[in-house]
Amino acid sequence: FLLSRYAVSFFCNMDTNDVNELVRLFVTLSINFGHEFAMEMVKNMIRHKLEIKLETVKMLREHELALARMRYAHELAIEHINLVQKKPKLGFW
Questions:
Q1: What is the mean pLDDT of residues 32-56?
Q2: Residues 40, 4: contact at Cβ < 8 Å?
């Protein structure tokens, strides 16, 4: 268990989109620890990478939503300032 957690954390910087790297990793793990262990490790690593990617996408969406809200609030503020400036002043001239 500790070895598998160590291996997942060690290999999580690896580019899982690169099939050659995954194959190299699988072969290395398979030779040293057996086929089933290698399969489980590669699956865990890919799952871990997907979780990170999904979390990043979620954070980016939240960030974009916050930016959109700020942009809208900014536009409303400018619109309000323009309305206030155009409003005729009451008083004596």
A1: 79
A2: yes
**What 8-state DSSP symbol labels residue 14?**
S
| pTM of this structure | 0.44
Query: Using the 8-state DSSP alphabet, how is residue 91 labeled?
Result: S
Cα–Cα dist 2/34, whole Å: 16
SS3 49: helix
Of the candidates 6, 81, 73, the residue with the CA atom closest to the CA atom of residue 45: 6
Tell me the chain's radius of gyration from C-alpha atoms.
Answer: 27
One-letter amino acid at 42 equals V
CA–CA separation, 52 and 87 (whole Å): 52
Helix, strand, coil shares of the chain, percent, nearest 5, are 85, 0, 15
